[in-house]
Hints:
By secondary structure, the protein is of the alpha/beta class. The protein contains 23 helices and 14 strands. It has a six-stranded parallel beta sheet with strand order 3-2-1-4-5-6, covered by helices on one side. It has a six-stranded parallel beta sheet with strand order 9-8-7-10-11-12, sandwiched between helices. It has a two-stranded antiparallel ribbon with strand order 13-14.
Amino acid sequence: MTAPANPAPSGRTNAAVWFSSDGYDPAKKGINGRRVAGASFLRGFFAHGEVDEFVALAHSRADHTAFADLARASGVTRPLRQVRLDAPQGLAPVEVVQYPAPTPPTEFWRRAPHGAAAWALCGITHTTATRNVMETVFQMRSAPQMPWDAVICTSVAVQASIRRLMELAEAHLAQRYRGAVLPARPLLPVVPLGIHCDDFRPDPALGQALRDRIGADPGDLVVVSIARLTPDEKFDPLPLFLAMELAAQDWRAQGGGRLHLVLCGKFSEAQWADSFAKAAARLMPSCGYHVLDGADAAERKATLSGGDVFVFPIDNLQETFGLAPIEAMAAGLPVIVSDWDGMKDTVTPDVGFRIPTELPRAGLSSYVSHRHMGGTDSYIQYLSQVSAMTPLDVAAMARALVTLARDPDLRARMGARARDRARRLYDWSVVIPQMQALWGEQAAMLAHARRVGGPAISPHSADLIPVGPAVQEMFAAYPTSFSDPDRRLSATGHPDQPAPRETFTLRNYAVRGRLLEDTSRIETVLAAYASAGPRGATEAEIAATTRLPRLMVARVSLWLLKYNYLQEART
């Protein structure tokens, strides 16, 4: 991936994508909501971003290559530019970095040596229930985060939860530091996740083939869901099974057909396949139960094409938005979802039903949170225990199923409105401009901060960053002394000593993938010291002789001292 020699500043808003394959490549790294959303965002940005170039900020050449591969797969013909994370000053003229999660404090500290107004950071929420995310939000308020930074909240409910986390952090810091005034919070805009609506156009032939496969008659109701199949991290299926059976009995009493439940997904653990099947047989014996492979794109397409109703009864803190109901809406299906986080925004009465949910009142779950925080319980155990205390209204879910079962015209009307709503509000062609507008707002705030100036935006000494100070700052009490930049060093000239290249091989520095310096430069520096004779030379003199950067010469000199190629010159 190569950069144009002098990339022209764009009049349109852009952001560099902080890229790691883990955040954007479900095919290679494993399917989960965060990666699926990340991959979808990149496709949307490549297709709809009003930018002159696409910029990747990454640790490694492999990640830059992966970014370029994804861009080419999306048909990108505009320039691609790579910026190393250890050389972020190369971001210009781009002024915003888009991070694929809530921005960790490391990124604020990484910016600090360049000045707090060097660029703006923009994160986005996915799962927020992990200890890592909670700690990230807390640490954000004590890191050099600035008001032109942002955390995109994908729903109003998630915005409220992030705001509450910040309030708790600020209350603690104010109490501990006696009313210390914290800088303004980052921007917390609500911008939904997006989808590519055209990807979810139903395929009637696939849909009919699915109905034939599961034995669904024309008068039957096929209820479908696409999700990770785990009761710990997505939804407990038993309340759904109970609602299905109640609805089946009610509809049968009205002369209706049979209900079928199709779950398209992957079991996170093999044990759940048997558990789901046994629970379905026991709790909804009069309904059909079918499981399809969610890793198969054709099966996902068949599920949305052959279903009559989409269900998503989330009861889990892990969920924050709910992409699957949006995809079902784009396919023209009416939806039945929990009244839960992002679905409070996405599902309106004209496209489906939201089923009431409860959380335990104050005092009932504190011990669960404390066990999770302290590491006694894992994240999965935490989610599972809270889910066990999160009821959905089973009777209301059954009534919604019956209402849709007996009224095909209502299903058709809701499905049509759902398709329209998905396209109007959640297609990437609509969402990407919202993100670019946010980046533009951040860039405008940066410009104002630079005009006004002040100590808050001055560069922070790179040696004095408290979460990663220079070695001489934190470990000053360790050594006998520190290297002297003005001392004179001379070559030892031992005739039997191996060349530096051989010492490198003997030490096997390459095994860690990091070299202090290229061996040819090390040998150049040693040769310069040898040419200086017994009187030796200083770092500055060697740098002048070799035309190598002085700091490089200083580091190489220490290595040569370490392996007895150099000694203090006798003057």
